[in-house]
UniProtKB/TrEMBL annotation:
GO terms for molecular function: oxidoreductase activity. InterPro entries: FAD-dep_OxRdtase (IPR006076), FAD/NAD-bd_sf (IPR036188). Its EC number is 1.-.-.-. SUPFAM superfamilies: FAD/NAD(P)-binding domain. It is an enzyme of class 1 (oxidoreductase). The keyword Oxidoreductase applies. This is FAD-binding oxidoreductase. Keywords: Oxidoreductase. It comes from Hohaiivirga grylli.
Length: 443
């Protein structure tokens, strides 16, 4: 079953001859970057090979959370929490944002202690996040049958609607002069005296001074064609939504077996709290050493499988001429088949733990490809080898919530402004300069 339909964004017909910055990718990261740059008065064009917010930006859970974040992402996510409430006013369009609070369940003393220790990451930040007792947990989720020691509760966390938010940001950028070009794949770039000078799209060439690659799961392929190595693989996450339900929890909940959040339409988005599928593909072998720490740390959450995906990706070329069709023109949108087994287990667990869910039915199931990097921390960085080229990718399932702040940080880097936060942990060179890969998420 295909993923939920995002609000359609009609692309501009006219291809500009010249802009200041071209953003490659019309997901939430690319559109947030474009909005920030356009608000600074720069001429910007977003080039999207398919449609705005059509891949993971429109297929994710919709969580906007700082809780349980990798410590390296916390300062940037704290900024995102401040930006989300302003987005509807900034863009003039609905995002569905709701500061509903998120609770992570703790079923053992050891788990409770790990979350409690994690709270040290929020010291000095104005964020309401705390541990709650089993009694407080039961008050938030009446009828919950899960045997808990308590929970990690962040009232400042919330959710937004993936099918609304990216479109809203794109339209907000367009209102400030940004070109939104859909079905406009970028085949490559041109340089002058070693500096970025243009992008070559399927519709023609656009001269520019800087390029931001925000291509999600396609970023590694694009960079590889330029001789730049980015270890990146795809993880399949499966999601479902229910029909509208009265009497369900308003606060978003995570457990090992399921995660659930209330949607704007009154239904719930539900997924497994941990289970994901990883298709073994040719690049799995190329990046095997890079991902060893991830496999050791996340073995409970990742299930490897051999599928037709191996042969599909094996047929994708690594290089192509700029006057020929690129792989991006033959693969407009990633819309994978979800795992019914994983979703059935998650929905059964939700009904078992929260009996109120027995009153509703599954309305839709879908899958989405998460773009991952070995340490699950995003890359928000200039490409030193190609002056004028920047990349924002590898958000590893954390990109939707952090998107507005990631866009602001990228705009800072492009314009040479003082960065919103220290970008050191997000540099691409960490995968080649001997930095040890540390995986924090999924504790």
């Amino acid at each position: 079953m295909p993923s939920p339909r995002s609000v359609p964004v009609i692309g501009d017909e006219t291809l500009p001859e010249k802009v200041d910055v071209v953003v490659i990718g019309g997901g939430i990261i690319g559109c947030s970057t474009a909005l920030e740059l356009a608000e600074r008065g720069l001429k910007v064009a977003v080039c999207e090979k398919g449609n705005i917010g059509r891949e993971q930006s429109g297929q994710n859970w919709g969580w906007v959370r700082i809780g349980r974040r990798d410590s390296r992402e916390v300062p940037l996510m704290a900024e995102a929490l401040r930006l989300w409430p302003e987005l509807e006013k900034r863009t003039g369009h609905a995002t569905g944002y709701n500061r509903c609070g998120i609770v992570f369940s703790c079923t053992s003393d050891a788990e409770y202690a790990r979350y409690e220790a994690w709270l040290e990451n929020l010291k000095g930040l104005d964020v309401d996040s705390r541990m709650i007792s089993a009694g407080e947990y039961k008050k938030l989720f009446p009828g919950n049958t899960l045997d808990v020691k308590g929970g990690h509760y962040t009232p400042d966390d919330g959710c937004a609607e993936p099918q609304l938010a990216t479109a809203a940001i794109a339209e907000g950028a367009r209102a400030k002069g940004c070109y939104i070009l859909t079905e406009c794949a970028v085949r490559g770039l041109e340089t002058t005296a070693g500096q970025v000078s243009a992008v070559v799209t399927e519709r023609g060439t656009i001269a520019c001074q800087a390029i931001v690659l925000a291509g999600g799961a396609w970023s590694s392929l694009f960079l590889g064609s330029l001789g730049v190595r980015l270890p990146q693989l795809r993880v399949l996450n499966s999601v479902l939504r229910t029909e509208p339900l009265e009497g369900g929890p308003d606060t978003t909940l995570w457990t090992w077996d399921f995660a659930a959040r209330k949607r704007k339409d009154g239904g719930y988005t539900i997924a497994s709290g941990q289970a994901n599928l990883v298709d073994v593909v040719p690049k799995s072998f190329s990046y095997f050493i890079d991902y060893l720490p991830t496999l050791k740390h996340e073995w409970r959450a990742l299930s490897l499988r051999f599928s037709s995906r191996f042969f599909e990706e094996a047929r994708i070329p690594n290089k192509w001429a700029l006057n020929e069709e690129s792989p991006f023109e033959y693969h407009r949108s990633l819309d994978p088949v979800p795992s019914r087994k994983i979703l059935d287990r998650a929905f059964e667990a939700a009904c078992r733990t929260m009996p109120v869910f027995r009153k509703t039915k599954v309305a839709q199931r879908w899958g989405g490809y998460i773009d991952t990097v070995p340490d699950a921390v995003p890359v928000i960085s200039p490409i030193e080898k190609i002056p004028g080229l920047f990349v924002a990718t590898g958000f590893s399932g954390h990109g939707f919530g952090i998107g507005p702040a990631a866009g602001r940080l990228m705009a800072n880097l492009v314009t040479g402004e003082k960065p919103l936060v220290d970008p050191h942990n997000f540099r691409l060179s960490r995968f080649s300069d001997g930095t040890k890969t540390v995986v924090e998420c999924g504790f």
